[in-house]
């Protein structure tokens, strides 16, 4: 009942405000409401006061009645001006002025102290402080205090001309309680208003900081092409970036406004998978899945992660979805898998299964490096500053007839030389980076060509041997894995001793080193250790006859029962592995006149793979 009464009272006050005023911030709207409410209340009180004067015995009843009618007119004027005057302070000054003037007129009109010290006089300090602040409020309070105190006595005693003669203490003390109450009221309400202003200022600063942080966050999520959306515990949209909204609009054919539910009443693919992720996130679990759907006749795959949003108490208050389109990667993987299957079938039909599996393994691994290099080159080309340089050239071309004056006098022309210099420097850096990637790509393609060329009638066909520096070849093998090693936070240690060159088939040795580094990388990735470490060593055995290449990792390690079968064809402990990488590497090491062995302290303690090759002097004698 009280709630309905309060809502009705607010609606009645708001009826005197304009639509613009009703849309003001809460603090400003409250001041307008208090102003209108006070004007309405005083208008009603003065009307009732004027009506009751007819049966009252108050001295100077007629004069007081005229003052009451003037007050009614003044408050009605305030209600009119509220809608037409845009300055709130002006209307507030008029309101406080009318209220104070009414009390002054009452002071002059009536000798009765009951009128002068009426409870409504407290409205002046309270209203003036709330609407105008402490200083202006004190001025209005002082005026009323003087009127209620000495002015009333002085005026009605003829300023001392009527007996009894005015005594100062009597004049000051006759209505001292009312004066004191008003001063106390002004002081208390001024303290309250000051506290509110300080709190409001602190809140405003906090809100500005929050808005700034929110702006940075929005800028961050809008700068990515990934799909980002946040929902509350009921699945209603809270925030989303543009790619996410465009995707949902394309899938559903309608927009998703803030507060609208993300999930349809009857979830189907792909919504059902997202709903499972959402429910897991509500329990505090972070999970991911791959969502597939048809879009414009094409199959699309989104790798989606759902993360719970927690408050200070650790309670889940929402869920954030992060999704990335991996359709192109899936298609590339499918094409690569198809290539693998095709090569494997051809090798089986030709009776060269062992050689073909080795070729397939190495080509597949190297294709990943090729794919990475091509992606890096494409990304750098997309981010190139060449279009900016072309626009600068076009600008110079437009002002070619007066190029000298354009470059020296025009503001845009003055900025052009530094811009061209900066773009040129950036293009040199881009060219160097692209040359590095092209070199890596060329090496990968060369390695693929060499590996494929090994597929001959005789699987033990010996290729061209040459004298090589093992350290340089090992660095080349590390470069093929450089991006993956950096991405996974693997620290690489090189411990190279001064060793003589060896006479070997470069590509067979590169194939062995590439496979060993790949296996070490996977072992470190599966271990989940924060201190992933890969150590490569080159040394000569004490007798000087054998060159030793060690690849050591601190990854998942190998159990003792698996060590004897490690180099058997088809044996693997790696999830998704095929079991011929180490087998073909061991065969290649044997073909080079050396051996490939492995030692491991056990699961969780890493492993060491050792390649032993004949030293150059021994090879020369052979």
Give the secondary structure arrangement, pairings included.
Blueprint: H1 2-14, H2 19-22, H3 26-52, H4 61-84, H5 88-109, H6 113-116, H7 123-132, H8 134-156, H9 168-173, H10 176-222, E1 227-232, E2 237-240, H11 242-252, H12 271-282, E3 287-295, E4 298-310, E5 316-325, H13 327-349, H14 353-382, H15 386-398, H16 403-409, H17 411-453, E6 466-468, H18 470-480, H19 482-487, E7 491-496, E8 502-504, H20 506-527, E9 533-540, E10 546-553, H21 581-591, E11 595-599, E12 607-614, H22 616-621
Parallel strand pairs: 7-9
Antiparallel strand pairs: 1-2, 1-5, 3-4, 4-5, 6-8, 9-10, 10-12, 11-12
Structural write-up:
The protein has 622 residues and is of the alpha+beta class. The protein has four domains: 2-201, no CATH class; 224-325, Beta-Lactamase (2-Layer Sandwich), CATH 3.30.450; 333-453; 466-621, 2-Layer Sandwich (Heat Shock Protein 90). 60% of the residues lie in helices and 13% in strands. It contains 22 helices and twelve strands. It has helices at 2-14, 19-22, 26-52, 61-84, 88-109, 113-116, 123-132, 134-156, 168-173, 176-222, 242-252, 271-282, 327-349, 353-382, 386-398, 403-409, 411-453, 470-480, 482-487, 506-527, 581-591, 616-621, and strands at 227-232, 237-240, 287-295, 298-310, 316-325, 466-468, 491-496, 502-504, 533-540, 546-553, 595-599, 607-614. The strands form three sheets. It has a five-stranded antiparallel sheet with strand order 2-1-5-4-3, with helices on both faces. Strand 4 (298-310) and strand 5 form a beta hairpin. Helix 7 runs antiparallel to helix 8 (134-156). It starts with a helix and ends with a helix. The relative contact order is 0.04. The model is unreliable at 163-171, 347-356, 454-462 and 617-622 (pLDDT under 50).
């Amino acid at each position: 009942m009280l709630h309905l009464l309060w809502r009705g009272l607010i609606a009645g006050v708001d009826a005197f405000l304009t639509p613009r005023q009703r849309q003001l911030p809460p603090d400003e709207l409250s001041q307008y409401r208090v102003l209108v409410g006070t004007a309405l209340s005083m208008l009603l009180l003065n009307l009732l006061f004027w009506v009751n004067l007819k049966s009252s015995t108050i001295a100077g009843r007629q004069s007081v009645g005229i003052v009451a009618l003037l007050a009614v007119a003044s408050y009605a004027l305030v209600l009119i001006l509220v809608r037409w005057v845009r300055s709130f302070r002006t209307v507030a000054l008029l309101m406080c002025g009318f209220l104070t003037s009414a009390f002054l007129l009452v002071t002059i009109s009536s000798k009765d102290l009951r009128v002068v010290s009426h409870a409504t006089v407290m409205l002046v300090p309270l209203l003036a402080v709330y609407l105008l602040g402490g200083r202006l409020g004190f001025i209005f309070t002082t005026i009323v205090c003087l009127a209620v105190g000495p002015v009333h006595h002085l005026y009605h005693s003829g300023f001392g001309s009527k007996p009894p003669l005015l005594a100062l203490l009597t004049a000051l003390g006759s209505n001292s309680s009312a004066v004191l109450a008003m001063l106390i009221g002004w002081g208390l309400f001024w303290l309250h208003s000051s506290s509110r202003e300080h709190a409001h200022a602190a809140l405003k600063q906090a809100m500005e900081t929050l808005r700034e942080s929110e702006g940075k966050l929005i800028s961050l999520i809008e700068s990515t092409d990934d799909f980002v959306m946040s929902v509350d515990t009921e699945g209603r949209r809270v925030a989303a970036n543009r790619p996410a909204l465009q995707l949902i609009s394309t899938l559903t054919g309608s927009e998703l406004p803030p507060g609208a539910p993300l999930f349809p009443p009857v979830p189907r693919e792909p919504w059902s998978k997202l709903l499972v992720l959402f429910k897991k996130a509500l329990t505090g679990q972070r999970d991911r899945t791959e969502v597939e759907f048809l879009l414009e006749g094409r199959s699309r795959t989104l790798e989606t992660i759902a993360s719970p949003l927690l408050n200070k108490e650790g309670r889940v208050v929402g869920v954030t979805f992060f999704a990335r389109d991996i359709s192109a990667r899936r298609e590339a993987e499918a094409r690569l898998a198809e290539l693998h299957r095709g090569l494997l079938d051809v090798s089986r039909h030709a009776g060269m299964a062992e050689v073909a599996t080795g070729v397939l393994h190495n080509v597949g691994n190297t294709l990943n490096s090729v794919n990475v290099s091509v992606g890096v080159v494409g990304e750098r080309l997309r981010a190139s500053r060449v279009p900016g340089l072309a626009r600068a050239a076009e600008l110079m071309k437009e002002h070619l007839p007066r190029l000298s004056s354009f470059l020296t006098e025009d503001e845009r022309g003055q900025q052009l030389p530094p811009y061209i210099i900066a773009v040129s420097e950036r293009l040199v850096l881009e060219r160097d980076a692209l040359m590095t990637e092209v070199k890596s790509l060329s090496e990968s393609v060369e390695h693929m060509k060499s590996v494929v060329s090994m597929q001959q009638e005789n699987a033990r066909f010996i290729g061209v041997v040459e004298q090589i520096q093992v350290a340089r070849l090992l660095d080349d093998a590390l470069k093929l894995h450089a991006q993956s090693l950096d991405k996974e936070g693997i620290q690489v240690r090189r411990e190279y001793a001064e060793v003589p060159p060896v006479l070997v088939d470069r590509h067979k040795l590169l194939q062995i080193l590439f496979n060993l580094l790949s296996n070490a990388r996977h072992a470190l990735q599966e271990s989940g250790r924060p201190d992933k470490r890969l150590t490569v060593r080159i040394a000569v055995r004490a007798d000087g006859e054998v060159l030793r290449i060690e690849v050591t990792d601190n990854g998942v390690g190998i159990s003792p029962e698996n060590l004897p079968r490690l180099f058997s064809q088809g044996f693997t402990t790696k999830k998704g592995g095929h079991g011929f990488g180490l087998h073909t590497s061991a065969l290649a090491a044997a073909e080079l006149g050396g051996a490939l062995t492995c030692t491991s302290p056990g699961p969780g303690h890493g492993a060491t793979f050792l390649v032993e090759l004949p030293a150059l002097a021994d090879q020369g004698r052979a």
